[in-house]
Amino acid sequence: MKDKNWTDIVSKQGDLRHFASMAIRKSGKSEHTSAQEIDFLFRIALSEEPLTPRQITNAMGISKTIVSRLTDHLESKGFICKEASASDRRSYCIRITGAGKDEIDRMYYYYLDPLYTLQKNMKKEKFETLFQLIREANEILSSQKK
Fold first, then answer.
1. Exposed site from 4, 31, 55, 73, fewest CB < 10 Å?
2. What pLDDT score was predicted for residue 45?
3. What is the pLDDT of residue 32?
4. Which residues of the chain have pLDDT under 50?
5. Closest-CA residue to 23 (of 122, 100, 102)
């Protein structure tokens, strides 16, 4: 082994997986919208302008294939609509529909409850530091992908 401390890193990876499994809820049996779909809808709804699939790919850190699947699935549910790009006829932008906004209203607390729990039970400074470090780590890992 190159790294003599690999067992420590494996333990940290386990901690990270455990945190992620508690912080990011899976869709319940009675729920039909996954956490990834809700994330997609949040990003579209919160954007000041319609987003392209490439922008969503970059923002979510997922492949174009997954964005295409999510787009098709959410469009079939009536939660989003595609609009042809005015500048490039080969491209399109994605907008949230009224039904998509209703779905966010219906599901957001279920998915955000773990973060609300952290916010309520951690000191504000620690909560903000946690997410500052997560953003920094995301930037480091994102830059390695390129």
1. 4
2. 95
3. 73
4. none
5. 122
Assign 88 to helix, strand or coil: coil
AA identity, residue 9:
I
- Which residues partner with 96 through β-bridges? 80
Where in the chain does DSSP place strands (E)? 80-84, 92-96
Strands (E), 12-113: 80-84, 92-96
Enclosing H/E stretch for 129: helix 124-145
In the block, residue with structure tokens 């609300």 = 116
Q: Which helix (H) or strand (E) holds 31?
A: none
Q: Under CATH, to which class is 29-145 assigned?
A: mainly alpha
Angle CA(26)–CA(74)–CA(52) in degrees, nearest 5? 110
Residue 62: what are its φ and ψ, rounded to 5°? -125, 170
Question: For residue 23, what are its two tokens?
Answer: 């912080």
Which of 86, 76, 90, 99 lies closest to 49, judged by CA? 86
